[in-house]
Amino acid sequence: MPETPQLVERTRDDIAPGYTFGSVTDQISAVVLTKRTPIFWMLCFGAGFGLLLLLLLSTALLFVKGVGIWGIRAPVMWGFAITNFVWWIGIGHAGTLISAILLLLNQRWRNSINRFAEAMTLFAVACAGMFPVLHLGRPWLMYWLFPYPNSMGIQPQFRSPLVWDVFAVSTYATVSMLFWYVGLMPDLGTLRDRTRNRIGRIVYGIMSLGWRGSARHWSVYETATLLLAGLATPLVLSVHTVVSFDFTIAIVPGWHSTFFPPYFVAGAIYSGFAMVLALAIPLRKVYGLEGLITAKHLENSAKVMLATGLIVAYSYIMENFAAWYGGEVYEQAAFWHRLTGPYRYSYWVLIACNIVAPQFLWFKRFRTSPALLFVSSIVVLVGMWLERFMIIVSSLAQDFVPSSWGYFHATRWDVATFAGTIGLFLFLFFLFIRLLPMISIFEVRTLLPQAKVKEERG
Amino acid sequence: MTHEVYGLMAEFDNPTALVKAARAAREKGYRKLDAFSPFPIEGLTDALRLHKNKLPLLVLAGGIVGGIAGYLLQYYVTVVSFPINIGGRPLHSWPSYIVITFEMTILFAALSAVLGLLGLCGLPMPYHPVFNAPRFALASRNRFFLCIEADDPLFDRALTGDFLRGLEPHEVSEVAH
Questions:
Q1: Where do the domains of chain B lie?
Q2: Which of B140, B141, B145, B148 to mutate to test the interface with A (most CBs of A within 10 A)?
Q3: How many CB atoms lie within 10 A of CB A301?
Q4: Hey, what domains does chain A have and what are their CATH numbers?
Q5: What is the pLDDT of residues A88-111, one digit of tens each?
Q6: Is the Cβ pair B39, A179 closer than 8 Å?
């Protein structure tokens, strides 16, 4: 029998050496099954809960008094609400990118960060979805957005991008939820088998739907995951495209532009990866998960951030170039106002946050330092919020007729509602960390070298 | 026909041993087999000769139904039920239907993927005999199990037990109903 050449195991940098199926399972499930809760968790959850109460307060006030408690006055009727909507929904995009697109591209390092990134998507979409509804004026009539047989004899206007948005966002929320739950099923089975708590066993048992790891099930399961990833990929690209249609279909100067869809999608992924880093860096430190969420994960996320950041930078430049080259006076004026007008501070700060600051990511020493990456991800999140704010507010404040120009003043309730959704996000996210495995256990098992079946030849 | 036991379960340490055992059992002539593992294993589907599943077809059907339903919904609302004449523009304005048609395609396809997954796997299933195997809780941690069910025509408690022990498992146990 001829000597078969031994395949040299490539050293993996997406998981630390020395892990076994058992230790991976134990380490990830211990975060959930332990009775001890870290102080860090208490603090973050407490902060989230406090801000959630603020959201409750500001929403209650909004229901009682109306949207006038916000600073939205003619001509700026979109203000903070729509800015926050676009910002939050963009953040969600990185989760789907990691879970679906990187799965199709066979990027296996994603296996240890996809679960919490998907959770981040769900909670970000929940925060996002709240704003257009609260902004309706009569939020309790939000079901009028959907077509249904009614005695009023009216129907939604299907030629309006705002109605497209309703369908895009609700489909996105539903599909993200389904994808996330399907991914959780095997891990819920693991928790059911490992918990010593009676209530835990019943709850995880019901949630796992009786998953038993049968080979027949795994074979259907893998097909289902692949198909869902294939469906989620065009979906995620379509969602921010449709969000950008809310602007481009209007003829407002500064909005009516054909490259908004790719520009918005790149910006969404940019801010989403920033949020992934902002969450992953403290979590891996506190829970000692550096062996599973390694330096490679941080570095790769930083690279995606740099790449999408450059696309965003290109968009800023092209936007100004197209306005100048197009020769349309209102368009030119809109961009001149952004650069030098009443909102110039937010414009130049966003340029500093989104274009200048990320250039440090070219350096490996910067990308491999968690503390610096954390700071830069916060900077990007701030920058992307300012970008959304600038696009929405500056265009509305100064459109065609100077006599109708205005200036947007945010009220304390604008700030409170926004801070409140950050609270909702933290609240849901830390509840998730405590109750469900934040890293996909079964997918990390497949990363281990011993998961490969050694075939005998000859 | 009822049997005294559900089947016999052999426990293995690693995926390679499980795939080898599954292949050996197939070759021996056993057909009512199932394997249990904490993660999907490449090659196990082949070793057990599992048929290709019908999920892609279901998803395709779901997508087509969703797309057609989405389009017809918009056609019905804008042309039949609630027509709005704006400067004589056509009521059947198909370019503006594209987005929602697309979203409904994805929504229905994704729903049929998940419902199809549950349907084809027979989940949710509150009770299953394999959980009676003594160390089966480890199937979701680090152990790999092969079960030969009593329904199999070749099944014999003693002979099948000997066969499984010959595959060098960690342990062989009987699974009660």
A1: 7-51+129-175, 55-121
A2: B140
A3: 26
A4: 21-146+156-449 (1.20.1630.10)
A5: 999 998 888 888 888 888 888 888
A6: no
